[in-house]
Amino acid sequence: MYKTQDMEAIKMNYKNRKRAYYQENSCLDNFICKNCGCIVVPEGAGTQHRNHCPHCLHSLHVDIIPGDRAADCDANMEPIGVWVRKNGEWAIIHRCTRCGHLSSNRIAADDNPVKLMSIALKPLAQPPFPLERITEKMEKEETE
Q: Where is the RNHCP domain (predicted)?
């Protein structure tokens, strides 16, 4: 039988090979979303690297650098915002619910458009100041 230390070395070697594999190769595995429980399949994503649920847009904290599988956190990453890249492509900003790590992921072709718009509009729906201030400011500018 293997000693505990030998088993740990074998596990680490396997884990490191798996980590390197996804940096060079497509990830076409199905998975069950840990947030909403939906089965997620790569078909329809429009990408070879599905990294979040198209229904709730949650992800998992498994990478430090995309595809490296080097993060040991494995916690849920919630979608907290969207941004637009120079080429006009949208990306989702995810925040790890355990350690707070932030990452950016391209949207996929089959992502829930209502959820994307909800995330994009959240800052407008919940401004950091009373909405009356906008009206007051506009009225003040009209009188000047």
A: 29-117
Residue burial 32-51, b: 16+ Cβ < 10 Å; e: rest: ebebeeeebebeebeeebbb
How is residue 49 annotated by DSSP?
B
Query: pTM (2 decimals)?
Result: 0.73
* Residue 85: per-residue pLDDT: 95
pLDDT tens for 67-105 read 777 788 889 999 999 999 999 999 999 999 999 999 999
Q: Kindly state the average pLDDT of the residues 35-57.
A: 85
- Domain with 52 in it: 4-143
Quote the number of domains for the chain.
Answer: 1
> Which amino acid is present at 64?
I
Report the distance separating Cα 125 and Cα 65, nearest Å.
Answer: 33
25: helix, coil or strand?
coil
Quote the strand ranges of 3-144, DSSP E.
Answer: 31-32, 39-40, 59-60, 76-84, 90-96, 102-106
- Cα–Cα dist 94/85, whole Å: 15
pLDDT for 111 beyond 60: yes
